[in-house]
């Protein structure tokens, strides 16, 4: 910009502003200029903003579409509805993962309990059950065999082996 277009205060003078606007309009008009497509003597397709030398009949003017108006939204980013749907899906996925972790923790706990009971049954010690009134009911060999089968099935169901 010419030095005389600026005031000492750093603000643009009215003449400089008019010059700047004229340049902006001229460049905008040039940007919307014509594009020509033509084939040169070597058979190569050329695109230029001016007609080819000699302006033969094979040159075609191409209409360049105008740029879309700025909408404030980036077309490469998801829309707010898509973002909301993604957030809901991520929340549901996190909930499912939490439920799966809880289920696995319960299975591990049940597995450990069944293994402890089977180990107690195999220990050879005298085993008993405590009744509701607090009385001990000692298990005989048939009860131990029955409980051993129950705990083996529980291990098969709850443990990953």
> What Rg do the Cα atoms give?
43 Å
Largest sheet features: 3 strands, antiparallel
The assembly state of the depicted protein chains is: single chain
Strand order of the largest sheet: 2-1-3
How helix-rich are the residues, as a percent range? 40-55%
Summarize the structure.
The protein has helices spanning about 15-30, 80-120, 140-160; strands spanning about 35-40, 45-50, 60, 130, 135-140. The chain is mainly alpha-helical.
Topology:
Blueprint: H1 14-31, E1 35-39, E2 45-48, E3 60-62, H2 80-122, E4 128-130, E5 136-138, H3 141-158
Antiparallel strand pairs: 1-2, 1-3, 4-5
Task: Tell me what the structure shows.
The chain is mostly helical and 161 residues long. It has three domains: 1-32; 34-63, no CATH class; 80-158, no CATH class. The protein is 49% helix and 11% strand. The protein contains three helices and five strands; from the N terminus they run αβββαββα. The strands form two sheets. Strands 2-1-3 form a three-stranded antiparallel β-sheet, with no helix packed on it. Helix 2 packs antiparallel against helix 3 (141-158). The mean pLDDT is 79.
């Amino acid at each position: 910009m010419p030095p005389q277009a600026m005031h000492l205060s750093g603000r643009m003078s009215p003449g400089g502003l008019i010059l700047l606007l004229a340049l902006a309009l001229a460049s905008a008009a040039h940007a919307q200029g014509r594009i020509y497509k033509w084939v040169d003597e070597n058979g190569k397709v050329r695109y230029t903003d001016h007609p080819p030398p000699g302006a033969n009949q094979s040159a075609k003017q191409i209409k360049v579409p105008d740029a879309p108006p700025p909408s404030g939204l980036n077309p490469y980013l998801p829309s707010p509805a898509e973002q909301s749907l993604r957030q809901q899906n991520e929340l549901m996925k996190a909930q499912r993962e939490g439920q799966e972790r809880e289920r696995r923790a319960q299975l591990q706990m049940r597995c450990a309990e069944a293994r402890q009971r089977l180990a107690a049954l195999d220990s050879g010690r005298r085993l008993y059950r405590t009744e509701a009134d607090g009385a001990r009911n000692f298990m005989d060999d048939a009860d131990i065999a029955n409980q051993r089968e129950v705990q083996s099935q529980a291990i098969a169901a709850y443990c990953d082996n």
